[in-house]
Amino acid sequence: MLDISIAYNRYKFLGDEFLTWLWFIIEKEPEKISFPDKEPVSLETGNRIVLVKKINDIDESVTIKGDDAGLEEGMLALGKGSVVTELNLLLKSNNQKWRFSIKGESLNISGIKVPESGPVESKKDVEGAVMEKAYFYERIFIILDNLFKNFIKLRLSSEWHHSVLPLMKKWIKE
């Protein structure tokens, strides 16, 4: 059995590859993003992307921040061998918006902003408001679990090297 720290260090690259693939999917194949119940959803890159390139155990990073920031610098960094290590996302579904960030190394989700709950006007409404908030948080985890599961299946298949990587390289060079 692998020691947890050895396994972590051996496979932590998967999170960065997942975020890089996720940016690609958002830009080029957004139809692949959906809730398991086929509810319409859109996922967009948010206002922060961090890309890192390892050079002799030294990290060279590029951070793109801002609501109207251009992503050209990020694409240039990808072309030079960087991977996405942190990605801010905006999830939209049925006139509701979620905003959150994911770190690739640990797949930690932070800075979650969920849609507004209905007003709490009496003690009876509190339980409903709590359940609604829990539902809003659950939606983020459902879609990310679904996307990560699809990524892992794809990453382990021969399709990854034969079709996905060439499409991603083409996207980066555009």
Tell me what you see in this structure.
This protein is α+β, with helices and mostly antiparallel strands. It has helices at residues 4-11, 13-28, 72-79, 123-156, 159-173, and strands spanning 42-55, 58-65, 83-93, 96-103, 109-113. Strands 2-1-3-4-5 form a five-stranded antiparallel β-sheet. The chain is globular and about 60 Å long.
Note the topology.
Elements: H1 4-11, H2 13-28, E1 42-55, E2 58-65, H3 72-79, E3 83-93, E4 96-103, E5 109-113, H4 123-156, H5 159-173
Antiparallel strand pairs: 1-2, 1-3, 3-4, 4-5
Global geometry: globular
The low-confidence runs, each spanning 5 or more residues with pLDDT under 50, are: none
Helix content: 40-55%
| Major sheet attributes | 5 strands, antiparallel
Strand order of the largest sheet: 2-1-3-4-5
State the end-to-end CA separation.
44 Å
Oligomeric state, counting identical vs distinct chains: single chain
Beta-sheet strand percentage? Answer: 25-35%
H/E element sequence: HHEEHEEEHH
Structural class: alpha+beta
| Total helical elements | 5
Q: What is the average of the pLDDT values? A: 88
CA gyration radius, whole angstroms: 18 Å
Strand segment count: 5
